[in-house]
Amino acid sequence: MDYSEPRRDFLKKLGLAGATFSAASLMDPVYAAELKGELKKIKHLSPEDAAQDEGFWRFIQQSYTVSATLTNLNNGGVSPQPKVVQDAFERFNRLCNEAPSYYMWRVLDKGREPIRQKLAHLAGCDPEEIAINRNTTEALETIIFGLNLEEGDEIVLSKYDYPNMMNSWKQREKRDGIVLKFIDLDMPMEDDKVIVKRYETAFTSKTKIVHITHMINYTGQILPAKAITAAAHKKGIEVILDGAHTFAHIEYNLKDINCDYFGTSLHKWLCAPFGTGFMFVRKEKIASMWTMFSNDNPKSDDIRKFEVLGTRSFPTEQGIGKAFDFHQSIGGKRKEERLRYLKNYWANQVKDLPKVKLYTSFDPKYSCALCTFGIEGMEPGDINAYLFDKYKIHTTPINHEAVHGVRVTPHVYTTLYDLDRLVKAIKEMAA
Ligand SMILES: Cc1ncc(COP(=O)(O)O)c(C=O)c1O
Protein backbone atom coordinates (compact mmCIF):
# COMPACT_ATOMS: atom_id res chain seq x y z
CA MET A 1 0.00 0.00 0.00
CA ASP A 2 1.29 3.45 -0.86
CA TYR A 3 0.23 5.69 2.00
CA SER A 4 1.20 8.95 0.39
CA GLU A 5 0.23 9.48 -3.23
CA PRO A 6 -3.49 10.28 -3.10
CA ARG A 7 -2.83 12.86 -0.43
CA ARG A 8 0.02 14.44 -2.37
CA ASP A 9 -2.23 14.83 -5.41
CA PHE A 10 -4.95 16.32 -3.27
CA LEU A 11 -2.50 18.80 -1.77
CA LYS A 12 -1.21 19.86 -5.14
CA LYS A 13 -4.76 20.56 -6.23
CA LEU A 14 -5.36 22.65 -3.15
CA GLY A 15 -2.01 24.40 -3.46
CA LEU A 16 -1.17 23.53 0.14
CA ALA A 17 2.25 22.06 -0.50
CA GLY A 18 4.11 24.51 1.76
CA ALA A 19 3.49 25.36 5.41
CA THR A 20 1.62 28.68 5.47
CA PHE A 21 1.01 30.78 8.55
CA SER A 22 0.21 34.32 9.64
CA ALA A 23 -2.19 36.02 12.01
CA ALA A 24 -4.57 36.20 9.04
CA SER A 25 -4.78 32.40 8.92
CA LEU A 26 -6.55 32.46 12.30
CA MET A 27 -10.22 32.02 11.47
CA ASP A 28 -11.92 34.94 13.26
CA PRO A 29 -11.15 38.02 11.08
CA VAL A 30 -11.73 40.56 13.88
CA TYR A 31 -9.44 38.67 16.24
CA ALA A 32 -6.83 38.22 13.51
CA ALA A 33 -6.82 41.98 12.76
CA GLU A 34 -6.47 42.83 16.47
CA LEU A 35 -3.61 40.37 16.90
CA LYS A 36 -1.90 41.84 13.86
CA GLY A 37 -2.21 45.31 15.42
CA GLU A 38 -0.73 44.09 18.72
CA LEU A 39 2.13 42.37 16.92
CA LYS A 40 2.91 45.58 15.04
CA LYS A 41 3.33 47.43 18.35
CA ILE A 42 6.08 45.06 19.54
CA LYS A 43 7.72 44.43 16.16
CA HIS A 44 10.73 46.62 16.94
CA LEU A 45 11.44 44.90 20.27
CA SER A 46 13.90 42.05 20.83
CA PRO A 47 12.25 38.84 22.12
CA GLU A 48 13.70 39.61 25.58
CA ASP A 49 12.16 43.11 25.61
CA ALA A 50 8.88 41.92 24.09
CA ALA A 51 8.73 39.39 26.94
CA GLN A 52 8.12 42.31 29.31
CA ASP A 53 5.52 44.18 27.26
CA GLU A 54 2.50 43.59 29.50
CA GLY A 55 0.10 45.19 26.99
CA PHE A 56 0.90 42.57 24.37
CA TRP A 57 0.71 39.67 26.80
CA ARG A 58 -2.57 40.98 28.21
CA PHE A 59 -3.96 40.66 24.69
CA ILE A 60 -2.63 37.09 24.46
CA GLN A 61 -4.22 36.33 27.82
CA GLN A 62 -7.57 37.47 26.44
CA SER A 63 -7.15 34.97 23.59
CA TYR A 64 -7.75 32.16 26.11
CA THR A 65 -10.93 31.23 27.96
CA VAL A 66 -9.25 30.27 31.23
CA SER A 67 -10.93 30.45 34.63
CA ALA A 68 -11.00 33.86 36.28
CA THR A 69 -11.28 32.33 39.74
CA LEU A 70 -8.79 29.47 39.65
CA THR A 71 -5.14 30.21 38.90
CA ASN A 72 -3.75 27.36 36.86
CA LEU A 73 0.00 27.06 37.39
CA ASN A 74 0.20 23.46 36.21
CA ASN A 75 0.41 24.11 32.49
CA GLY A 76 3.24 21.58 32.39
CA GLY A 77 0.63 18.86 32.88
CA VAL A 78 -1.57 19.87 29.98
CA SER A 79 -2.29 23.34 28.60
CA PRO A 80 -5.53 25.07 27.68
CA GLN A 81 -6.22 25.94 24.05
CA PRO A 82 -6.65 29.52 22.84
CA LYS A 83 -10.20 30.25 21.65
CA VAL A 84 -9.22 30.00 17.96
CA VAL A 85 -8.16 26.39 18.52
CA GLN A 86 -11.32 25.51 20.47
CA ASP A 87 -13.41 27.10 17.70
CA ALA A 88 -11.60 25.14 15.00
CA PHE A 89 -12.09 21.89 16.90
CA GLU A 90 -15.80 22.59 17.37
CA ARG A 91 -16.24 23.54 13.72
CA PHE A 92 -14.56 20.32 12.54
CA ASN A 93 -16.56 18.30 15.04
CA ARG A 94 -19.86 19.73 13.84
CA LEU A 95 -18.85 19.09 10.23
CA CYS A 96 -17.99 15.46 11.01
CA ASN A 97 -21.34 14.97 12.69
CA GLU A 98 -23.12 15.85 9.45
CA ALA A 99 -21.87 12.60 7.87
CA PRO A 100 -18.98 11.10 9.86
CA SER A 101 -17.51 8.62 7.41
CA TYR A 102 -17.71 11.10 4.53
CA TYR A 103 -16.29 14.17 6.29
CA MET A 104 -13.75 12.26 8.38
CA TRP A 105 -12.40 9.84 5.82
CA ARG A 106 -12.86 11.73 2.58
CA VAL A 107 -12.41 15.35 3.63
CA LEU A 108 -10.57 15.87 6.94
CA ASP A 109 -8.24 12.91 6.36
CA LYS A 110 -6.77 14.94 3.52
CA GLY A 111 -5.84 17.67 5.98
CA ARG A 112 -3.20 15.49 7.64
CA GLU A 113 -0.47 16.34 5.15
CA PRO A 114 -0.54 20.13 5.75
CA ILE A 115 -0.42 19.39 9.51
CA ARG A 116 2.57 17.11 8.98
CA GLN A 117 4.31 19.91 7.07
CA LYS A 118 3.60 22.46 9.77
CA LEU A 119 4.96 20.16 12.49
CA ALA A 120 8.07 19.42 10.42
CA HIS A 121 8.58 23.16 9.96
CA LEU A 122 8.51 23.66 13.74
CA ALA A 123 10.63 20.58 14.50
CA GLY A 124 13.21 21.32 11.82
CA CYS A 125 13.00 17.97 10.03
CA ASP A 126 11.56 16.43 6.88
CA PRO A 127 7.75 15.94 6.90
CA GLU A 128 8.47 12.37 5.77
CA GLU A 129 10.00 11.75 9.21
CA ILE A 130 6.86 12.69 11.20
CA ALA A 131 3.93 10.47 12.19
CA ILE A 132 1.01 12.18 13.90
CA ASN A 133 -0.51 10.43 16.92
CA ARG A 134 -2.03 11.17 20.32
CA ASN A 135 0.82 12.03 22.67
CA THR A 136 4.41 11.49 23.80
CA THR A 137 3.50 8.23 25.50
CA GLU A 138 2.16 6.77 22.27
CA ALA A 139 5.07 8.20 20.27
CA LEU A 140 7.85 6.92 22.52
CA GLU A 141 6.26 3.58 23.35
CA THR A 142 5.83 2.95 19.63
CA ILE A 143 9.54 3.59 19.29
CA ILE A 144 10.60 1.62 22.37
CA PHE A 145 8.54 -1.43 21.38
CA GLY A 146 9.40 -1.05 17.69
CA LEU A 147 13.19 -1.26 18.00
CA ASN A 148 15.06 -4.44 17.12
CA LEU A 149 16.88 -5.34 20.35
CA GLU A 150 18.33 -8.62 21.59
CA GLU A 151 18.95 -10.22 24.94
CA GLY A 152 21.90 -8.54 26.65
CA ASP A 153 21.61 -5.25 24.70
CA GLU A 154 22.00 -2.31 27.07
CA ILE A 155 19.89 0.84 27.32
CA VAL A 156 21.10 3.92 29.21
CA LEU A 157 18.45 6.10 30.83
CA SER A 158 18.19 8.35 33.88
CA LYS A 159 16.32 8.09 37.15
CA TYR A 160 14.48 11.25 36.10
CA ASP A 161 12.93 9.91 32.90
CA TYR A 162 9.14 9.79 32.64
CA PRO A 163 7.47 6.75 34.32
CA ASN A 164 5.55 5.65 31.19
CA MET A 165 8.78 5.33 29.25
CA MET A 166 10.63 3.64 32.11
CA ASN A 167 7.78 1.13 32.34
CA SER A 168 7.97 0.35 28.63
CA TRP A 169 11.69 -0.26 28.94
CA LYS A 170 11.08 -2.45 32.03
CA GLN A 171 8.54 -4.47 30.07
CA ARG A 172 11.13 -5.07 27.33
CA GLU A 173 13.64 -5.98 30.04
CA LYS A 174 11.25 -8.68 31.33
CA ARG A 175 10.15 -9.86 27.90
CA ASP A 176 13.34 -9.64 25.84
CA GLY A 177 16.15 -9.72 28.42
CA ILE A 178 17.58 -6.30 27.55
CA VAL A 179 19.55 -4.60 30.35
CA LEU A 180 18.64 -1.16 31.74
CA LYS A 181 21.37 1.10 33.15
CA PHE A 182 19.99 4.03 35.14
CA ILE A 183 22.22 7.03 35.73
CA ASP A 184 21.59 9.60 38.47
CA LEU A 185 21.37 13.36 37.96
CA ASP A 186 21.51 16.31 40.38
CA MET A 187 18.81 18.97 40.33
CA PRO A 188 19.80 21.44 39.02
CA MET A 189 22.86 20.76 36.84
CA GLU A 190 24.59 23.60 34.99
CA ASP A 191 27.58 22.11 33.22
CA ASP A 192 27.26 20.27 29.89
CA LYS A 193 30.50 18.39 30.42
CA VAL A 194 29.42 17.02 33.79
CA ILE A 195 26.02 15.96 32.42
CA VAL A 196 27.48 14.28 29.32
CA LYS A 197 30.02 12.49 31.51
CA ARG A 198 27.21 10.96 33.61
CA TYR A 199 25.78 9.37 30.47
CA GLU A 200 29.15 8.46 28.97
CA THR A 201 30.31 6.56 32.02
CA ALA A 202 27.32 4.23 31.60
CA PHE A 203 28.12 3.44 27.95
CA THR A 204 29.65 0.02 27.25
CA SER A 205 30.25 -1.97 24.08
CA LYS A 206 26.76 -3.47 24.58
CA THR A 207 24.93 -0.13 24.75
CA LYS A 208 22.48 0.21 21.89
CA ILE A 209 20.26 3.11 22.95
CA VAL A 210 20.44 6.17 25.17
CA HIS A 211 17.08 7.54 26.27
CA ILE A 212 17.17 11.28 27.07
CA THR A 213 14.44 13.45 28.55
CA HIS A 214 15.03 16.86 26.97
CA MET A 215 13.34 18.78 29.80
CA ILE A 216 12.83 16.84 33.00
CA ASN A 217 9.23 17.13 34.12
CA TYR A 218 10.06 17.02 37.84
CA THR A 219 12.13 20.23 37.82
CA GLY A 220 12.28 21.73 34.32
CA GLN A 221 15.99 20.84 34.01
CA ILE A 222 17.03 21.08 30.35
CA LEU A 223 19.58 18.47 29.30
CA PRO A 224 22.19 19.15 26.59
CA ALA A 225 20.59 16.76 24.10
CA LYS A 226 22.92 17.68 21.25
CA ALA A 227 26.08 17.03 23.27
CA ILE A 228 24.78 13.74 24.71
CA THR A 229 23.74 12.66 21.20
CA ALA A 230 27.20 13.46 19.81
CA ALA A 231 28.84 11.43 22.60
CA ALA A 232 26.47 8.50 21.95
CA HIS A 233 26.88 8.55 18.18
CA LYS A 234 30.67 8.46 18.58
CA LYS A 235 30.14 4.99 20.05
CA GLY A 236 27.50 3.93 17.53
CA ILE A 237 24.69 4.30 20.09
CA GLU A 238 21.26 5.50 18.92
CA VAL A 239 19.40 8.29 20.70
CA ILE A 240 15.74 8.59 21.70
CA LEU A 241 14.71 12.08 22.80
CA ASP A 242 11.64 12.71 24.96
CA GLY A 243 10.54 16.18 23.87
CA ALA A 244 7.24 16.27 25.80
CA HIS A 245 8.20 19.50 27.53
CA THR A 246 10.42 21.26 25.04
CA PHE A 247 8.46 21.25 21.77
CA ALA A 248 6.98 24.74 21.14
CA HIS A 249 8.40 25.79 24.53
CA ILE A 250 12.08 26.38 23.78
CA GLU A 251 13.57 26.92 20.34
CA TYR A 252 15.63 24.09 18.83
CA ASN A 253 15.68 21.91 15.81
CA LEU A 254 15.91 18.17 15.43
CA LYS A 255 18.40 18.26 12.58
CA ASP A 256 20.76 20.22 14.81
CA ILE A 257 20.32 17.93 17.83
CA ASN A 258 20.74 14.99 15.46
CA CYS A 259 18.82 12.45 17.56
CA ASP A 260 17.47 9.32 15.88
CA TYR A 261 14.01 9.16 17.44
CA PHE A 262 11.81 11.78 19.12
CA GLY A 263 8.33 12.04 20.57
CA THR A 264 6.25 14.91 21.89
CA SER A 265 2.78 15.99 22.94
CA LEU A 266 1.07 18.96 21.30
CA HIS A 267 -1.47 19.52 24.11
CA LYS A 268 1.31 20.86 26.30
CA TRP A 269 3.25 23.84 24.93
CA LEU A 270 1.69 24.16 21.48
CA CYS A 271 -1.80 24.41 23.06
CA ALA A 272 -3.29 22.04 20.47
CA PRO A 273 -6.41 19.96 21.25
CA PHE A 274 -6.11 17.36 24.02
CA GLY A 275 -4.76 14.07 22.74
CA THR A 276 -2.37 15.25 20.03
CA GLY A 277 1.30 14.45 19.50
CA PHE A 278 3.81 13.12 17.03
CA MET A 279 6.80 10.87 16.65
CA PHE A 280 9.92 11.52 14.60
CA VAL A 281 12.01 8.71 13.15
CA ARG A 282 15.13 9.53 11.17
CA LYS A 283 14.38 8.67 7.53
CA GLU A 284 16.86 5.82 7.15
CA LYS A 285 15.62 4.13 10.36
CA ILE A 286 11.92 3.96 9.41
CA ALA A 287 12.08 0.73 7.37
CA SER A 288 13.68 -1.34 10.14
CA MET A 289 11.32 -0.15 12.89
CA TRP A 290 8.26 -2.25 13.72
CA THR A 291 4.91 -0.52 14.11
CA MET A 292 2.77 -0.80 17.24
CA PHE A 293 -0.34 -1.47 15.14
CA SER A 294 0.03 -3.78 12.19
CA ASN A 295 -0.30 -2.76 8.56
CA ASP A 296 0.12 -4.44 5.20
CA ASN A 297 3.79 -3.50 4.77
CA PRO A 298 5.57 -3.45 8.13
CA LYS A 299 8.99 -3.00 6.48
CA SER A 300 7.86 0.07 4.53
CA ASP A 301 10.06 3.15 4.77
CA ASP A 302 6.96 5.37 4.67
CA ILE A 303 6.45 7.08 8.04
CA ARG A 304 2.68 6.81 7.49
CA LYS A 305 2.88 3.13 8.41
CA PHE A 306 2.79 4.35 12.05
CA GLU A 307 -0.52 6.11 11.45
CA VAL A 308 -2.63 3.00 10.79
CA LEU A 309 -4.44 3.53 14.09
CA GLY A 310 -8.05 2.85 13.14
CA THR A 311 -10.79 5.40 13.74
CA ARG A 312 -9.64 8.37 15.76
CA SER A 313 -10.72 11.97 16.39
CA PHE A 314 -10.15 13.89 13.18
CA PRO A 315 -11.48 17.18 14.64
CA THR A 316 -8.82 16.87 17.36
CA GLU A 317 -6.06 16.23 14.86
CA GLN A 318 -7.16 19.04 12.55
CA GLY A 319 -7.16 21.49 15.45
CA ILE A 320 -3.35 21.20 15.49
CA GLY A 321 -3.23 23.48 12.44
CA LYS A 322 -4.75 26.44 14.25
CA ALA A 323 -2.53 25.86 17.30
CA PHE A 324 0.47 26.04 14.99
CA ASP A 325 -0.81 29.29 13.43
CA PHE A 326 -1.37 30.83 16.87
CA HIS A 327 2.10 29.79 18.05
CA GLN A 328 3.74 31.15 14.90
CA SER A 329 1.85 34.43 15.20
CA ILE A 330 3.31 35.00 18.67
CA GLY A 331 6.72 33.77 17.50
CA GLY A 332 8.59 30.86 19.05
CA LYS A 333 11.47 32.88 20.46
CA ARG A 334 9.18 35.57 21.86
CA LYS A 335 7.09 32.89 23.55
CA GLU A 336 10.17 31.19 25.01
CA GLU A 337 11.46 34.48 26.42
CA ARG A 338 8.07 35.34 27.93
CA LEU A 339 7.84 31.94 29.60
CA ARG A 340 11.35 32.29 31.01
CA TYR A 341 10.58 35.84 32.15
CA LEU A 342 7.48 34.65 34.04
CA LYS A 343 9.45 31.88 35.78
CA ASN A 344 12.25 34.23 36.75
CA TYR A 345 9.72 36.87 37.88
CA TRP A 346 8.37 34.71 40.71
CA ALA A 347 11.41 32.54 41.40
CA ASN A 348 13.73 35.53 41.87
CA GLN A 349 11.45 36.91 44.57
CA VAL A 350 11.57 33.74 46.68
CA LYS A 351 15.00 32.27 45.96
CA ASP A 352 16.72 33.89 48.96
CA LEU A 353 14.04 33.15 51.53
CA PRO A 354 15.78 31.06 54.23
CA LYS A 355 13.42 28.07 54.10
CA VAL A 356 12.91 27.98 50.34
CA LYS A 357 14.83 25.55 48.17
CA LEU A 358 14.77 25.82 44.37
CA TYR A 359 15.45 22.70 42.33
CA THR A 360 15.64 24.60 39.04
CA SER A 361 18.44 26.63 37.45
CA PHE A 362 18.26 30.34 36.54
CA ASP A 363 20.64 29.77 33.63
CA PRO A 364 18.56 30.10 30.41
CA LYS A 365 20.47 27.16 28.94
CA TYR A 366 19.14 24.83 31.61
CA SER A 367 15.61 26.09 32.31
CA CYS A 368 12.56 27.91 30.99
CA ALA A 369 8.95 27.94 32.28
CA LEU A 370 9.01 24.98 34.70
CA CYS A 371 10.40 25.55 38.18
CA THR A 372 10.12 23.48 41.34
CA PHE A 373 10.48 24.83 44.87
CA GLY A 374 10.38 23.18 48.28
CA ILE A 375 9.91 24.62 51.77
CA GLU A 376 11.88 23.26 54.68
CA GLY A 377 9.58 21.48 57.11
CA MET A 378 6.67 21.17 54.66
CA GLU A 379 5.63 18.14 52.64
CA PRO A 380 5.00 18.72 48.90
CA GLY A 381 1.33 17.79 49.39
CA ASP A 382 0.96 20.37 52.16
CA ILE A 383 2.49 23.14 50.05
CA ASN A 384 0.19 22.20 47.20
CA ALA A 385 -2.85 22.18 49.50
CA TYR A 386 -1.94 25.55 51.06
CA LEU A 387 -1.73 27.17 47.61
CA PHE A 388 -5.06 25.76 46.57
CA ASP A 389 -7.03 26.15 49.80
CA LYS A 390 -5.95 29.70 50.50
CA TYR A 391 -5.33 31.11 47.01
CA LYS A 392 -7.03 28.73 44.56
CA ILE A 393 -3.66 28.30 42.88
CA HIS A 394 -3.44 24.91 41.16
CA THR A 395 0.05 23.34 41.05
CA THR A 396 1.45 19.83 41.22
CA PRO A 397 3.39 18.25 44.11
CA ILE A 398 6.65 16.48 43.29
CA ASN A 399 8.16 13.72 45.42
CA HIS A 400 10.70 11.97 43.24
CA GLU A 401 14.25 10.85 44.04
CA ALA A 402 15.95 13.95 45.57
CA VAL A 403 13.17 16.40 44.66
CA HIS A 404 10.53 17.28 47.26
CA GLY A 405 8.46 20.31 46.40
CA VAL A 406 5.84 21.80 44.15
CA ARG A 407 6.22 22.44 40.44
CA VAL A 408 4.99 25.77 39.14
CA THR A 409 4.32 26.18 35.42
CA PRO A 410 2.96 29.43 33.99
CA HIS A 411 1.97 29.74 30.33
CA VAL A 412 1.66 32.68 27.93
CA TYR A 413 -1.70 33.67 29.43
CA THR A 414 -0.37 33.84 33.01
CA THR A 415 -0.40 37.38 34.44
CA LEU A 416 2.06 39.03 36.81
CA TYR A 417 -0.90 39.48 39.17
CA ASP A 418 -1.25 35.67 39.33
CA LEU A 419 2.45 35.32 40.12
CA ASP A 420 2.36 38.06 42.77
CA ARG A 421 -0.26 36.01 44.60
CA LEU A 422 1.98 32.94 44.34
CA VAL A 423 4.94 34.87 45.76
CA LYS A 424 2.78 36.16 48.63
CA ALA A 425 1.70 32.59 49.43
CA ILE A 426 5.26 31.26 49.36
CA LYS A 427 6.42 34.05 51.66
CA GLU A 428 3.65 33.18 54.11
CA MET A 429 4.59 29.49 54.10
CA ALA A 430 8.29 30.23 54.51
CA ALA A 431 7.72 32.71 57.36
C1 LIG B 1 8.96 14.13 30.21
C2 LIG B 1 7.59 13.62 29.84
N1 LIG B 1 7.49 12.63 28.95
C3 LIG B 1 6.30 12.14 28.59
C4 LIG B 1 5.13 12.62 29.13
C5 LIG B 1 3.83 11.99 28.71
O1 LIG B 1 3.04 12.91 28.03
P1 LIG B 1 1.59 12.45 27.54
O2 LIG B 1 0.78 12.18 28.75
O3 LIG B 1 1.07 13.62 26.79
O4 LIG B 1 1.79 11.24 26.72
C6 LIG B 1 5.18 13.64 30.06
C7 LIG B 1 3.94 14.17 30.64
O5 LIG B 1 3.92 15.08 31.43
C8 LIG B 1 6.45 14.15 30.43
O6 LIG B 1 6.56 15.12 31.33
Ligands bound, unique: pyridoxal-5'-phosphate
Mind telling me which CATH architecture of the largest domain this is?
A: 3-Layer(aba) Sandwich
Number of extended strands: 13
Which structural class do the helices and strands define? alpha/beta
CATH homologous superfamily of the largest domain?
Type I PLP-dependent aspartate aminotransferase-like (Major domain)
Give me the number of helical elements.
16
Biggest sheet features = 7 strands, mixed
Task: Summarize this structure briefly.
With 431 residues, the chain is an alpha/beta fold. Helix content is 42%, strand content 14%.
Could you please describe the fold and organization of this structure?
- The chain has about 425 residues and is of the alpha/beta class.
- It has two domains: about 110-325, Type I PLP-dependent aspartate aminotransferase-like (Major domain) (Aspartate Aminotransferase, domain 2), CATH 3.40.640; about 335-430, Aspartate Aminotransferase, domain 1 (Alpha-Beta Complex).
- The protein has helices at about 5-15, 30-40, 45-50, 55-60, 85-95, 100-105, 110-125, 135-145, 165-175, 190-200, 225-235, 255, 315-330, 330-350, 380-390, 415-430, and strands at about 70, 130-135, 155-160, 180-185, 205-215, 240, 260-265, 275-280, 355-360, 370-375, 395, 395-400, 405-410.
- The strands form three sheets. It has a seven-stranded mixed β-sheet, with helices on both faces. A four-stranded antiparallel β-sheet has the order 9-10-13-12.
- A hairpin with a 2-residue loop joins strand 12 (about 395-400) and strand 13 (about 405-410).
- Helix 2 (about 30-40) packs antiparallel against helix 4 and helix 8 (about 135-145) packs parallel to helix 9.
- The protein binds pyridoxal-5'-phosphate (PLP).
- Pyridoxal-5'-phosphate binds next to helix 8.
